[in-house]
Amino acid sequence: MKTIKNIIAIVAFISAVNANAQSNKPLTAIFKQSYEYEAMKNYEGAINTINSMYSETSYEINLRLGWLNYLSGKQKESISFYQKAISIMPAATEPLWGVINSYVKLENWTEVEKTYLSILKIDPKNTKANYNLGLIYYYRKDYKEAKKYFDVDLNLSPFGYNNLLMSAWTNYYLGNKNEASILFNKTLLYSPNDKSALEGLSLIK
C-alpha cells in the first residue's frame, strides 16, 4: 500500500511539473519576442509584448518592463516598475541598480544617493556603490563623508587608479597632507605621468 501511495505521489509531482512547464511556454515566448524587438530598438513593441501577459506579482516581468521603459525614455514608468520589482524581492540588488539609471536620467540625485545606500545595506562591500557614493559626497564638498566610502573601496582595491586618485584628493581637502602625498605617489605607480596626481603633489610641496 505504501509503495502504491509513493507511486501516486511521484506521478502527481511529475504531472504538476509538466503543467508548470506548459504554463511557462507562453511567458518564455513573449520574453524571447521582447528581446528580438529590443535588438531592433523597437522598445514599444517589446513593452507591448510583455504587457500582453502582465502580472503585478511577477518579479521578472516588472524588472523587464523597468528596463524597457528606461530604454524608451519613459523614466517615470520605468521607476514605477522597478519599485514593484523591489517590493517583490526586497533582498535583490538588480532592480536597485536598474532604477538608478532612471533617477540619473531625471537628475534626481537625492534618490540616486538613497538607492546607493539601499544597495549598501544589502551588499556593504559593493565597490561600485561605495565609489559612486564617495563621488556624490566629494562633489558636494562633503569630504569627510566621501572619505568614509572611498576608504572602503580603497581597502578592497588598494591599487585601483580611481580609488587611489579620489582618496588622495579627498585626503588633501581634509588637510591630511601626508596621506594625500602617499596616495598621489601610489597613483603615479599606476599612471606615471598622471596630471591630476602631479598637480596634487605640487600643491602639497
Structure report:
The structure is a single chain. With 205 residues, the protein is mostly helical. The chain folds into two domains: 1-108, Tetratricopeptide repeat domain (Serine Threonine Protein Phosphatase 5, Tetratricopeptide repeat, Alpha Horseshoe); 124-205, Tetratricopeptide repeat domain (Serine Threonine Protein Phosphatase 5, Tetratricopeptide repeat). It is 80% helix and 0% strand. The chain contains eleven helices and no strands. It has helices at residues 2-39, 43-51, 59-71, 75-88, 94-105, 109-122, 127-139, 143-156, 161-173, 177-190, 195-204. The longest helix is centred in the N-terminal third of the chain and has 38 residues, at 2-39. The termini are far apart.
